[in-house]
Amino acid sequence: MTDQPSADAARPPRRFLFLDASTREEGNTVRLARHAAEASLPAGAEQRWLRLDEHPLPPFEDRRHDGDGVYAEPTGHARTLLDATLAATDLVFVAPVYWYALPTSAKLYLDHWSGWMRVPGVDFKPRMGGRTLWGVTVLAGTPDKAEPLVGTLRLSAEYMGMRFGGVLIGNGSRPGDVLGDERALVEAKSFFAR
């Protein structure tokens, strides 16, 4: 019998990009996401964490119907985020529920996807197909109040041809509250292993 590498050994490691869209550093949502990453990321998975507030994007301009509808090559923070996004196999929105939806920085980042799809040579939409989109969120209320946020992520994944991994939802308001949400902490232990 010969030793042959397993199919898992032949696969490149998964690369998780955690996009922190919270306006509060190390808030409840980040704490829950870090707990889930420590407990359930696949063996050998790489992780990169970026705070969107530290990589501010300019307001998005919809120029799809102006002239040829082509967008210029991104620069600055937009280039950093584009490159990090394309390098990831798994994209995790770490986004607390703000007024039933995504925080401004996360929504603006998604708006820029419309431009990135129209940058010559980037092939953004085809390259995103087959990757996995996840969400981690915390809110002060019942999980059904997060449905607009969950729907945005689910439909974005669907449009891009991505797999939707789901959203881990915790409960809390004051910093650290989520660490008392036993249901969310238990779910976090297997969340990324799905």
CATH architecture annotation name: 3-Layer(aba) Sandwich
Class by alpha and beta content: alpha/beta
Please compute the radius of gyration using only Cα atoms: 18 Å
Strand content: 15-25%
CATH homologous superfamily label? Flavodoxin domain
What form results from the Cα inertia axes?
globular
- CATH topology (level 3) name: Rossmann fold
Which regions are unreliable across 5 or more consecutive residues at pLDDT < 50?
Answer: none
Span from first to last CA? 33 Å
Widest β-sheet, arrangement of strands: 2-1-3-4-5
Total strand segments: 5
How many DSSP helices?
Answer: 7
Main beta sheet: strand number and arrangement? 5 strands, parallel
* Secondary-structure element order, N to C: HEHEHEHHEHEH
The CATH class, by name, is Alpha Beta
Helix content: 25-40%
What is the arithmetic mean of pLDDT? 94
Kindly give the count of domains: 1
